[in-house]
């Protein structure tokens, strides 16, 4: 097998990957130590830093070659030699778009944030930037130990964002989120150590290097199964995968708008990304053997999330459960073990990030006008705010997978990719296609249709700034729906080699034609 | 002539984009004119493409134009490609032609509507989607159009969204269509699994045994990939599930009646002439598969004829002028499905085209009546309108005679062809279809007599001025004819409804233009009927139609209230709404509530909370300790991590 690294990241003459992680993190630290009254300065720093990060991510995207597998950007500095820990970052077709998604979502959240008090603003911006740095670190790290550090590091800013700027039962929600995801990671940490020491047993060196570890397959299959489950539990809680999801409706609902967007849009992908990057690479055989279990959880999540979404009164919870349903699709695609399924899953991670960010931002706009997002108190918003209603409709239709919009491409690929390898799971999951319109159109009808009652008749329509916040998401929703080829051409080669690797490891016939 | 197919949907898309960007600034009526001209442009391009195809030999009348690659992953290679062949161009011609007329009509009908430009925005997007549906060369792009028209239908049914019934009807239509779409999706996956392609030509090439080369060789894979008959049956039945949803066949018919909540031009264009026929088109498109799937064909024929009959009986007892037409549409779609299921594909398409003319005419006529009556839709409160609205009355009566199948109007020829096809399949299918034909002539006759004949009953109920924000048509005095925007389309459609039979006359084979034209798509479909049998059938068709007309005349000429002829069972649509309610919506609701209250709250969340003692813990301790343990933990993690990092950096240094 050829080396998975196709070029060294000297394209820009400076360590772009390291900068992607450190730029927001350092800016976050700087903002944190600013005097309290510098709220607006903090916002400017946050905005320019996150836009700078986006610029770097886009530059990387532009120079990323299509139809080429492997890590096209790569950086490795041995860090702690005795422990085999290194600062090892890499971007391939799978992580590329998650890095871009992260870089895109943060400036939108920072630009659209509604925090007013200068003091609060400063800390808010600081936590946001630190969170961006941690998320970048997760998507870029190829050293499992460093990944774990970043993975846990995301909890801290997220916790403070929810507990400090949230609404409703925010202390409860933040605590539940923190403990649940933290406990989910305990086994993960133990499993990481076992993997590293296992490598030492066979090679003589401790290693946390994903590339070394995944090319060796040092593990016995019995142990691999348990390690796979330990890894997956952490990712399952983070994503979240049914039935490990109950922190998420509370957290999404109680978090401030920006917090919900980041939690569902970016942080949820840490879980699904962890599965594709670490589970499938390190334990391909175990992943194959246990695929039916994960497929079943995915399908259960698709249907269960959709059914429970249909009886929520809280619009944010509708989106939270719809998110559970969409994550179910992603999980199904990941474990379909076919190029179409895996491609669809990667694309759907991006799509879901865009769509769920759009929905939470739109709910925040409703909340700003009405002081509530409870469906029983909303009605007829379409009358006074037709543009808001139109944009909501478009994002909603993307969410239910209307062809021509981005959600369809992902869902279609996932369902097709699953159908050709695990037919009956795909058939059952197809029910989710029907259920998604039930809860979404129902929620839309509650909020936007019928005669506006009371204050609902007096809301203002979208302001220019709000349109600007939504514009990039809308453009991407339409563009990816019509022309996903540029993305697929960059994702597919990496996915193909991963599928090949999994199939080889599990002694399945490799069908190149698929 | 014009080679590039992309112009056909391109004009509609351009109209959509212009109205989207500047529609509200253009306003009433300019936005409507832009939209209408855009669709007229699509129509002209269709005509040019049609004449281009005519210029070729009949075997060469098919080409594919690939615009770009849409979804490429491994062996899946979906392109945005358009197919010009006799079937797709026939569809494009009547879709754009009828759409242009209805757009023009809507300029008059939607006058002074608050969201005038938005109406045309949706309307253009609808036509674009419909054209993608019929012109696509592959299943996936057809599915794009298929769902696109569904979304536009949703927008337009809930157009008067302030009315809860309109909002609910739109949602209902979308959900029911999604049930069908599930079938469509699964059919695609099954086809892809067996053939590794989703283009029509690619799939069809794997069904025809002669194309399989004998002996070993590189093309052997071609033979291995042959579709088994079981797979073919499954694919056809799954696609038919899609068609049942889209074309409102039983048991998924009711959404179409509810869809009458939309403005009348919407009912005419989407819920009569074009979108609802998409299911019929899809089944005709896959005729090479259906041809090899006898079970599926029987299912289609039986569902079709049952739908035709049931909907016709319901139509006899409705009081809403549009509901009668809605059930009539369901019934006519059933006839089309009967044609498809009987293998009479040309007849089905012929009926689809003529139906588009006369049903659009009837709907637009009803819109004209509704307008004149100040938004009254109850035919029991009308009567005698022929004295006030001569153009509307005459054209509406032409529509009636046409749908009734009275010779020589177009419906006689097209319905006759379908019934001939049904007869060769089974005389029982024919018999049910024949009874339905009497019912058709009858229920439409009832509507015509109640609306246009007899004594005016609306003076007693007083004209309801501007009751609906939709039309804002506040006028006093007597009902009158609408503006020219509205009556010109009526006259054109009436003319077409009279003469469209000329498309496919049965007397000699030379007169079967449509038959010849569509032969490259459907193959030669010679009916196993002797000439005398044909004459006998045609004669009985005519007698049945006239019988229905006569019965309607004898009953409704003078009377307007005969409750014994409008039983509650039929008024309430055979109790189907109750069936939906008790079989689907109530159990589903109960199940969802159970999932939320018990599974989610008690089991999944309850376990988590109990395990961590979280509820008690946060409830008791967090309230007492301001900072809270978790906050300390979080900070501890942050500090600990910083410590680890510093340690590692120092070690590394």
What multimeric state do the chains show? heterodimer
Q: Kindly report the average pLDDT value of chain B.
A: 86
**Structural class of the helix and strand makeup of chain A?**
mainly alpha
From the alpha-carbon coordinates, what is the Rg of chain B to the nearest angstrom? 28 Å
Which chains make the largest contact? A-B, 82 and 73 residues
The averaged pLDDT of chain A comes out at 88
Structural class per helix/strand content of chain B? mainly alpha
**Unreliable stretches of chain B:** 210-225, 460-475, 623-627
Strand % of chain B is under 5%
Tell me the series of helices and strands of chain B, N- to C-terminal.
Answer: HEEHHHHHHHHHHHHHHHHHHHHHHHHH
Shape of chain A: globular
Described by strand count, sense and barrel closure, the largest sheet of chain A is:
2 strands, antiparallel
Helix-strand pattern of chain A, N to C?
Answer: HHEEHHHHHHHHHHHHHHHHHH
Query: How many structural domains does the protein architecture of chain B include?
Result: 2
Strands of chain A, total number: 2
How far the N terminus sits from the C terminus of chain A, by CA atoms, comes to 20 Å
Tally of helical segments of chain B: 26
Continuous helix count of chain A? 20
| Helix residue percentage of chain B | over 70%
Please characterize this protein's 3D structure.
The complex is a heterodimer of chains A (514) and B (653). With 514 residues, chain A is an all-alpha fold. Chain A is built from 20 helices and 2 strands. Chain A has one domain (16-505). Chain A has helices at 16-32, 39-63, 93-111, 118-140, 144-153, 155-165, 170-203, 210-216, 221-238, 247-254, 257-282, 284-309, 315-335, 339-370, 381-384, 386-399, 406-419, 423-448, 464-482, 485-505, and strands at 73-80, 85-91. A two-stranded antiparallel sheet of chain A has the order 1-2. In chain A, helix 3 packs parallel to helix 14 (339-370) and helix 13 packs antiparallel against helix 18. Chain B is mostly helical and 653 residues long. Chain B has 2 domains: 7-210 and 226-571, no CATH class; 584-652, no CATH class. In chain B, 70% of the residues lie in helices and 3% in strands. Chain B contains 26 helices and 2 strands. Chain B has a two-stranded antiparallel ribbon with strand order 1-2. The model of chain B is unreliable at 210-225, 460-475 and 623-627 (pLDDT under 50). At the A-B interface, strand 1, helix 5, helix 6, helix 7 and helix 12 of A face strand 1, helix 4, helix 5, helix 24 and helix 25 of B.
């Amino acid at each position: 097998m050829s080396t998975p690294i196709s070029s060294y990241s000297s394209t820009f003459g400076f360590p772009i990957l390291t900068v992607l992680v450190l730029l927001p993190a350092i800016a976050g630290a700087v903002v944190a130590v600013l005097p309290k009254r510098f709220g607006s300065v903090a916002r400017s720093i946050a905005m320019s830093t996150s836009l700078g990060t986006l610029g770097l991510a886009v530059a990387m995207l532009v120079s990323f070659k299509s139809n080429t597998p492997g890590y096209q950007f790569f950086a490795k500095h041995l860090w702690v030699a005795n422990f085999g820990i290194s600062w090892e970052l890499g971007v391939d077709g799978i992580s590329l778009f998650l890095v871009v998604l992260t870089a895109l979502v943060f400036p939108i959240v920072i630009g659209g944030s509604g925090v007013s008090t200068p003091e609060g603003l400063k800390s808010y911006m600081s936590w946001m930037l630190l969170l961006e740095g941690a998320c970048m670190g997760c998507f870029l790290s190829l050293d499992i130990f460093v990944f774990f550090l970043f993975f846990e590091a995301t909890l801290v800013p997220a916790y403070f964002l929810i507990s400090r700027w949230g609404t409703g039962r925010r202390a409860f929600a933040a605590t539940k989120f923190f403990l649940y995801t933290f406990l989910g990671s305990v086994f993960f940490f133990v499993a990481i150590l076992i993997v590293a020491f296992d490598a030492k047993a066979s090679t003589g060196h401790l290693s946390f290097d994903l590339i070394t570890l995944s090319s060796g397959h040092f593990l016995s299959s019995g142990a691999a199964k348990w390690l796979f489950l330990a890894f997956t539990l952490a990712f399952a809680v983070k994503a979240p995968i049914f039935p490990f999801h109950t922190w998420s409706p509370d957290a999404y609902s109680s978090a401030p708008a920006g917090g919900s967007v980041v939690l569902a849009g970016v942080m949820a992908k840490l879980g699904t990304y962890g599965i594709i990057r670490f589970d499938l690479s390190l334990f391909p055989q175990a992943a194959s053997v246990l695929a039916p279990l994960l497929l079943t959880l995915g399908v259960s999540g698709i249907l269960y999330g959709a059914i429970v979404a249909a009886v929520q009164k809280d619009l944010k919870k509708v989106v939270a459960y719809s998110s559970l349903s969409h994550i179910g699709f992603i999980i199904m695609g990941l474990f379909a073990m076919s190029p179409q399924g895996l491609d669809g899953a990667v694309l759907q991670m991006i799509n879901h990030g865009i769509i769920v960010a759009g929905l939470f931002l739109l709910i925040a706009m409703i909340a700003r006008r009405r002081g509530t997002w409870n469906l029983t108190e909303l009605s007829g918003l379409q009358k006074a705010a037709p543009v808001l209603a139109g944009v909501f409709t478009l994002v909603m239709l993307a969410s239910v997978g209307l062809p021509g919009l981005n959600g369809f491409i992902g869902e279609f690929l996932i369902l097709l990719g699953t159908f050709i390898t695990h037919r009956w799971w795909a058939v059952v999951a197809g029910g989710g296609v029907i259920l998604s319109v039930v809860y979404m159109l129902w929620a839309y009808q509650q909020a936007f249709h019928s005669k506006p009652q009371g204050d609902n008749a007096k809301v203002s329509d979208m302001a220019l700034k709000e349109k600007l916040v939504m514009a990039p998401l809308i453009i991407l929703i339409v563009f990816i729906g019509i022309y996903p080829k540029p993305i697929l051409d960059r994702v597919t080669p990496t996915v193909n080699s991963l599928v090949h690797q999994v199939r080889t490891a599990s002694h399945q016939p490799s069908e190149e034609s698929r | 002539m014009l080679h590039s197919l992309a112009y056909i949907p391109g004009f509609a898309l351009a109209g959509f984009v212009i109205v989207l960007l500047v529609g509200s600034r253009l306003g009433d009526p300019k936005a409507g004119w832009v939209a209408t001209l855009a669709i007229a442009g699509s129509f002209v391009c269709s005509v040019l493409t049609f004449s281009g195809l005519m210029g070729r030999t009949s075997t060469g009348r098919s080409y594919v134009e690939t615009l770009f690659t849409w979804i490429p992953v491994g062996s899946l290679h979906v392109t945005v490609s358009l197919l010009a062949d006799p079937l797709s161009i026939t569809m494009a011609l009547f879709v754009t032609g009828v759409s242009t007329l209805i757009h023009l009509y809507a300029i008059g009908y939607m006058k002074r509507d608050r969201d005038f430009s938005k109406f045309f925005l949706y309307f253009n997007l609808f036509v674009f989607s419909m054209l993608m549906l019929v012109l696509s060369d592959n299943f996936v792009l057809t599915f794009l159009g298929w769902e696109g028209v569904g979304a536009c239908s949703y927008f337009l049914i809930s157009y008067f969204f302030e009315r809860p019934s309109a909002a609910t009807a739109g949602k209902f239509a979308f959900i029911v269509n999604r049930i069908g779409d599930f079938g469509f999706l699964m059919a695609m996956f099954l086809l892809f699994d067996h053939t590794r392609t989703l283009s029509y030509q690619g799939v069809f090439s794997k069904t025809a045994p002669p194309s399989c080369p004998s002996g070993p060789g590189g093309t052997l894979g071609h033979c291995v990939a042959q579709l088994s008959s079981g797979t073919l049956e499954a694919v056809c039945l799954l696609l038919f599930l899609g068609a049942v949803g889209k074309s409102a066949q039983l048991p998924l018919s009711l959404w179409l009646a509810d869809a009458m909540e939309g403005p009348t031009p919407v009912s005419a264009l989407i819920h009569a002439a074009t979108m609802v026929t998409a299911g019929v088109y899809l089944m005709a498109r896959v005729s090479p598969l259906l041809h090899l799937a006898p079970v599926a064909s029987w299912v289609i024929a039986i569902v079709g004829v049952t739908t035709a009959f049931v909907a016709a009986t319901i139509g006899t007892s409705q009081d809403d002028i549009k509901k009668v037409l809605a059930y009539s549409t369901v019934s006519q779609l059933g006839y089309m499905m009967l044609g498809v299921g009987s293998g009479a594909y040309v007849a089905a398409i012929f009926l689809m085209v003529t139906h588009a003319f006369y049903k659009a005419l009837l709907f637009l006529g009803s819109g004209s009546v509704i307008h004149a009556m100040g938004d009254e839709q109850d035919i029991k409160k009308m009567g005698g309108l022929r004295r006030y609205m001569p153009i509307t009355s005459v054209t509406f009566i032409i529509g009636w005679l046409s749908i009734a199948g009275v010779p020589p109007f177009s419906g006689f020829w097209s319905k006759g062809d379908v019934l001939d096809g049904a007869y060769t399949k089974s005389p029982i299918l024919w018999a049910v279809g024949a009874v339905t034909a009497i019912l058709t002539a009858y229920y439409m006759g009832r509507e015509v007599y109640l609306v246009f004949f007899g004594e005016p009953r609306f003076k007693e109920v007083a004209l309801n001025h501007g009751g609906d924000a939709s039309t804002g048509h506040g006028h006093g005095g007597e009902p009158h004819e609408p503006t020219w925007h509205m009556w010109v389309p009526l006259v054109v459609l009436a003319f077409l409804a009279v003469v469209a039979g000329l498309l496919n006359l049965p007397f000699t084979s030379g007169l079967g233009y449509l038959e010849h034209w569509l032969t490259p798509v459907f193959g030669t479909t010679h009916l196993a009927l002797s000439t005398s049998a044909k004459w006998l059938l045609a004669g009985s068709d005519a007698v049945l139609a006239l019988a229905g007309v006569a019965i309607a005349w004898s009953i409704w000429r003078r009377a307007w209230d005969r409750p014994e002829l409008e039983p509650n069972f039929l008024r309430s649509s055979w109790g189907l709404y109750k069936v939906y309610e008790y079989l689907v919506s109530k159990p589903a609701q109960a199940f969802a509530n159970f999932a939320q209250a018990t599974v989610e709250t008690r089991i999944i969340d309850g376990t988590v909370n109990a395990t961590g003692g979280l509820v008690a813990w946060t409830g008791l301790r967090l309230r007492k300790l301001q900072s809270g343990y978790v906050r300390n933990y979080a900070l501890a993690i942050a500090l600990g991590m910083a410590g680890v990092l510093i340690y590692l950096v120092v070690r590394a240094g």
